[in-house]
Design brief:
The protein is an alpha+beta fold. The protein folds into two domains: about 130 residues, Cytochrome Bc1 Complex, Chain D, domain 2 (Orthogonal Bundle); about 240 residues, monomeric porin ompg (Porin, Beta Barrel). Helix content is about 15%, strand content about 35%.
Length: about 400
């Protein structure tokens, strides 16, 4: 078995006592960047030309020769729970390159991770950081996993093609027209590389002559499958089938009264590095059309993301949606809505996001209210709901 040589002897020493473990952790945090850099404000001392070279010099001491992480017996301290195993594709492929770059440049605390991860701001150039990120990406040997860059910001109405581990609370408030509040809790669970289970529970409140009424709507189960994902062309394509069960009270206006099968295709395209197009088209097919008509829909979202801190901080994503729906009955007309909105990352780790928009009818406006749309999104794969804030 070949002996692994470490560029920093302190990282290869086995520590047995608690004091030495604390010393080792501090040594890595304080002196590793200094070993790679010259005086403050100057260019990096080591002229590293490839991502592999940078990884061997700067990363192997903690992250291991193949990205799996060094064992405690070598590093001498307990790795933090947030320490990634880059060989596990399900953990690393959903992340954006900019997320990795933010932690490499500014250290773990920048994204509310452990301070064991030091800052390489003065040790590596931005180009070198990009190179080592590609090396980290290479530790996932299965290239069939969609990359995080294909996970475009979620629009208020248009569903995205990327499979996710997310939970959402979505609310629509009528600000013009008949008073009403529509809510929906959405749970998404990813399975393997390209599959996702989705469960949606709607619950609404409507104002009637006798006062406010509330109730649960039709429960929806869906299954998404990614057909195509190419980070180089910036394209992702998925299909989803779903079934809405008649769990709502149709007499109160909280359900269709019949089982409805739905299907749609979702497409996403990166236009530039920070702008994107998303399209969703499909049909809703009730078992009993007399209770609820069959319909088709087309939704399109166009947006662009802006981030502070040189592109690595809080992200703002203004978007505009065009939404078309048409019942499949004689004489039906197409309902068109436009939805201007913006999404913002709320937590430091950027796994909690909020979106605010307004849905405005532009055709067949009679009886169709203007709605304030709000959602809060929790990406469970990036941490707990109350973690990652500071």
């Amino acid at each position: 078995m070949n002996k692994i040589e470490y560029p920093y002897p302190v990282a290869a020493v086995s520590m047995s006592c608690e004091a030495n473990q604390r010393f080792l952790a501090a040594a890595i945090v304080l002196f590793l960047p200094l070993a790679l850099s010259s005086q403050p404000g100057s260019k990096p001392q080591l002229q590293l030309r490839t991502g592999d070279e940078i990884y061997r010099e700067a990363c192997i001491g903690c992250h291991g020769p193949h990205g799996e992480g060094q064992p405690k017996v070598i590093v001498g301290f307990d790795p933090p729970k947030s320490m990634p195993d880059f060989t596990k594709c399900d953990q690393t492929t959903p992340e954006y390159n900019r997320d990795y770059k933010a932690v490499i440049r500014d250290g773990g605390p920048e994204r509310a991770f452990s301070q064991i991860m030091p800052s390489f701001r003065d040790a590596l150039t931005p180009e070198q950081m990009d190179m080592v990120i590609e090396t980290l990406r290479g530790f996932c040997k299965d290239k069939g996993w969609p990359r995080g860059e294909m996970n475009f910001p979620l629009a208020a109405v248009t569903e995205k093609a990327f499979p996710e581990d997310e939970s959402l609370i979505k609310t629509g408030i009528n600000v013009q027209g008949a008073p009403g509040i529509d809510n929906e809790f959405v749970f998404e669970k990813r399975y393997g590389k390209r599959n996702q289970l989705e469960v949606a529970i709607p619950f609404s409140f409507a104002h009637s002559a006798t006062g406010w009424l509330g109730g649960v709507g039709d429960l929806v189960f869906g299954w998404k499958r990614v057909l195509l994902s190419n980070v180089h062309s910036g394209t992702i394509l998925s299909v989803q089938g779903e079934a809405a069960l008649p769990t709502g009270n149709r007499a109160r206006g909280f359900g269709s009264g019949t089982t409805t099968f739905g299907m749609f295709t979702a497409f996403g395209q990166m236009l530039t590095k920070t702008s994107f197009l998303q399209v969703q088209g499909g049909a809703n097919l009730p078992v009993n059309p007399d209770k609820s008509p069959q319909s088709v829909f087309l939704r399109t979202a166009l947006g662009k993301s802006f981030s502070d801190n040189h592109g690595l901080g809080r992200s703002w994503s203004p978007m505009i949606e065009a939404v078309a729906t048409r019942d499949l009955i004689d004489g039906a007309r197409t309902d068109w809505d436009v939805v201007p909105q913006f999404q913002v990352t709320v937590s430091r780790r950027q796994h909690i996001r909020a979106n605010v928009g307004v849905s405005v009818p532009v055709t067949n406006t009679a009886g169709r209210p203007v709605k304030l749309l709000v959602y809060f999104l929790w990406d469970r794969a990036d941490g707990g709901l109350f973690g990652g804030w500071r």
